[in-house]
Write a structure and sequence with these properties.
The complex is a heterodimer of chains A (427) and B (273).
Chain A: H1 2-14, H2 16-23, E1 26-32, H3 40-54, E2 58-64, H4 68-80, E3 87-91, H5 95-100, E4 104-105, H6 114-120, H7 125-128, E5 132-133, E6 136-137, E7 140-145, E8 147-152, H8 153-158, H9 170-180, E9 182-183, E10 189-195, H10 203-212, H11 230-244, H12 259-264, E11 268-274, H13 278-284, E12 289-292, E13 302-303, E14 305-312, H14 317-330, H15 333-343, H16 356-364, H17 368-374, E15 378-379, H18 387-402, H19 408-423
Parallel strand pairs in A: 1-2, 1-3, 10-11, 13-15
Antiparallel strand pairs in A: 3-14, 4-14, 5-6, 7-14, 8-11, 8-12, 9-10
Helix pairs in contact in A: 1-2, 3-15, 18-19
Chain B: H1 2-36, H2 54-62, H3 65-96, H4 102-114, H5 121-130, H6 137-145, H7 148-160, H8 163-171, H9 176-187, H10 189-205, H11 208-213, H12 222-226, H13 238-272
The chains are: A alpha/beta (427), B mainly alpha (273).
Chain lengths: 427, 273
């Protein structure tokens, strides 16, 4: 930091032209969260530094802001305190909250040319669902993910299943699961068939089941939920049945964070979790594994997840334009490929997958394609106004059904009533 | 019979103490276990599992911890020094001086104990911005220096000090501040020690406010470094997290072990009065 400003000072005195440039440089502040291990923070800092080096008329201060929750807290506090960042990466589901708080502006005012509109259409539609509302674009996809099914090929072989074929339907998942569930002599399960974690944010993976069963849990205006739709009830019944009726999944709430570990240790033969885990699984699974799309009921389906770029209120037009230019650059194929390889997030633009770097990466690790190909069936992650409260209610309902304190129907009906009470004022 | 009853009673006490101690130490023991073994042994407990210090190296390299430690050290020292100074003077005034509005003012100080600092984050941020202190260590410290708890604790301690000592010193010609310095502060040492421990450990562990009010490596404390490891999107590496946790809490743990007798005694004395 000190060193770079020192260098800048030296350069400024040496060259009058650069004095002019740095005097007129646009200053941007950019908050980013980190939700993957390893060197994600460093990669963002490096990319930002590269951009600043190429564009001497912009200064970007990339600020690490903790987890997604911390980042949104920091951005809201700073905005209310009169010191908003120009850009921030925040969960795509926080879009309605940020609109409601009147903290963000849409990108459309700064994307006016035909070329710009073309660029906006270059993102996967599944990712844009969480980024647009009312015909306006508030988010630009950046670190996005989607859940997939991982399976242990050795366990499949042992159970007499074809190790190269993952279950393609709900029924197959149960059927395979029954063969894969192993018990010891005293009747204790040593290996479960499947593991769908339900701690913390159960709505996300449950949404996979709901979409597969043909129901969308919230509308794109963010003011209406369909929690008690009979198809949602059926999906939840299936999730509960996996433990109680079919006995292929451990009963009760299943820990999200411990799931990859349980998979590595052979406590489960299949798991549902984020594509963000790909690199982790590749590095740590002591057996051959496969990656597949989530199984279908009436159709394939999965939610998207992860974070978007948001443009904050309070910047000058010049700053906002510079921020938009930076977003365009960092989501461009070469940078996006670098980011995807460093983190495991799904590259949000088809053109990124056409780059040489990406092609080589895919060749060495074809599993990453599964997530990309699943995107055509993916839908928006559950997001509404008052998102924290509404998803909170929904999570509680799911937990109540999973632990057996309420039937799926009761739980979802109550959740729908509570969500309605909150959302009526936004209709 | 009576003595047998007593032995039994004692046995139960010891048993309960051991049980509580075990429950207390388990997370720490698990942290140590995972931190010194490769990731494969996170959930497998084999006595002769290979030892490694890789986790510590990995954790240390994941964030600029050296700088963060320096920042945290400056931060807790600054807060503690300011708290001692302000709370001592305020507590002395509340304990020994009659002035109009004293009770109302003291009630206001007590009221501060009821307010969660998190509620005030936006207001505090505005103040810091007004003072042009955003992204500095004093900005992290300032909202905490006038501690209601500290004032209350010291006032109670000062009140228990016999007035005769105060009067004797006054007769000897000591000024108000002289009495404070020579009589009150020395006699309140255990309270200072106990309060200092609570304050240091609280601010050592504080996370949200420092994260929000600072932006750069030069000002952020260790807890911000620790948060890099909460990687919910990609699977949690317990061994590295625990190594990092041990690194960041290590200095406090060591300090506590070294001074534990003094700490426990001062807590007891501060509490009994």
């Amino acid at each position: 930091m000190l060193k770079s400003s020192f260098l800048k000072a030296v350069a400024a005195t040496a060259l009058t032209v650069s004095t002019w440039a740095s005097a007129h440089a646009v200053d941007l502040q950019f908050y980013f969260p980190v939700a993957v291990g390893g060197s994600a923070a460093e990669t963002i800092q490096e990319l930002t530094a590269e951009y600043v080096a190429q564009n001497p008329d912009v200064n970007i201060d990339a600020v690490y802001a903790g987890s997604y929750q911390d980042t949104v807290a920091k951005a809201i506090t700073a905005s209310r305190g009169g010191n908003p960042p120009q850009l921030s990466v925040i969960l795509s589901v926080d879009m309605f909250t940020l609109i409601d708080e009147d903290l963000i502006v849409s990108f459309d005012d700064y994307l006016t040319s035909e070329e710009d509109k073309e660029w906006l259409n270059g993102f996967y539609q599944a990712f844009m669902e969480n980024s647009q509302t009312d015909g306006k674009t508030y988010g630009i996809p950046f670190q996005r993910s989607t859940p997939v099914l991982y399976w242990n090929k050795e366990a499949f072989k042992e159970a007499g299943l074809d190790p190269d074929v993952a279950p393609a339907t709900w029924d197959e998942m149960v059927e395979f699961g029954k063969k894969l569930t192993k018990k010891d002599d005293s009747g204790n399960v040593t290996q479960w068939g499947v593991r769908i974690p339900s701690s913390g944010f159960p709505y996300w993976l449950f949404q996979g089941l709901a979409i597969e069963n043909g129901v969308i849990l919230a509308n794109s205006e963010g003011n209406q939920t369909n929690f008690d739709d009979p198809k949602a009830v059926e999906a939840l019944q299936y999730l509960v049945d996996l433990s109680t009726k079919y006995e292929v999944m451990a009963p009760g709430i299943i820990e999200w964070g411990a799931t990859p570990k349980a998979f590595f240790e052979g406590q489960t033969a299949m798991m549902w979790t984020s594509t963000g885990n790909l690199t982790n699984v590749r590095d740590n699974a002591p057996f051959e594994f496969g990656v597949a799309m989530l199984p279908e009921k009436v159709q394939r389906g999965a939610p998207t997840g992860g974070g978007n770029f948001y443009l904050f209120k309070g910047g000058s037009d010049e700053q906002n334009q510079a921020a938009v230019d930076f977003v365009k650059w960092i989501t461009a194929p070469e940078q996006s490929a670098k980011w995807t390889m460093a983190t495991g997030y799904v590259a949000p633009r088809p053109e990124t997958w056409e780059t040489e770097t990406m092609k080589q990466y895919v060749e060495g690790f074809p599993a990453v394609l599964v997530a990309r190909d699943q995107l055509q069936y993916a839908k928006a992650e559950l997001s509404t106004y008052q998102n924290q409260r509404v998803t909170g209610i929904f999570n509680d309902a799911l937990a109540a059904a999973i632990t057996g304190t309420k039937t799926p129907e009761e739980a979802l009906k109550e959740a729908q009533q509570q969500a309605d009470a909150i959302l009526t004022e936004y209709r | 019979m009576n003595s047998m009853g007593q032995t039994f009673d004692r046995f139960l006490n010891t048993l309960a103490a051991w049980a509580l101690a075990l429950i207390w130490i388990l997370p720490l023991a698990y942290a140590v276990w995972t931190a010194i073994h490769p990731a494969a042994y996170e959930a497998r407990f084999e006595l002769f599992a290979p030892l490694t210090y890789d986790n510590f190296v990995k954790a240390w390299e994941a964030a600029p911890f050296a700088r963060y430690f320096l920042n945290t050290f400056i931060l807790v020292t600054m807060i503690l020094a300011c708290q001692f100074f302000l709370c001592t003077l305020a507590a002395y005034a509340f304990a020994r001086f009659e002035f109009p509005g004293r009770n109302v003012l003291f009630a206001l100080v007590l009221l501060q104990l009821l307010v969660m600092p998190d509620i005030l984050i936006v207001e505090n941020y505005k103040t810091m911005r007004l003072l042009d202190l955003v992204d500095t260590i004093p900005a992290i410290a300032l909202p905490y220096v006038a501690s209601g708890f500290g004032i209350f604790l010291l006032r109670q301690t000062f009140k228990t000090i016999p007035k005769e000592l105060d009067e004797a010193a006054r007769i000897e010609g000591s000024s108000f501040l002289g009495v404070l310095w020579r009589v009150y502060i020395p006699l309140a040492k255990p309270t200072y020690l106990a309060y200092g421990l609570v304050s240091v450990s609280h601010h050592w562990n504080n996370f949200l406010w420092p994260l929000i009010v600072t932006n750069s490596v030069e000002t952020r404390p260790v807890t911000v470094g620790l948060s890099v490891f909460s990687a919910i999107d990609s699977g949690i590496e317990w061994s590295v997290i625990n190594a990092a946790t041990l690194i960041t809490s290590g200095p406090l743990l060591i300090a506590f072990l070294l001074f534990q007798r003094q700490f426990v005694q001062s807590f007891m004395r501060a509490g009994i009065k």
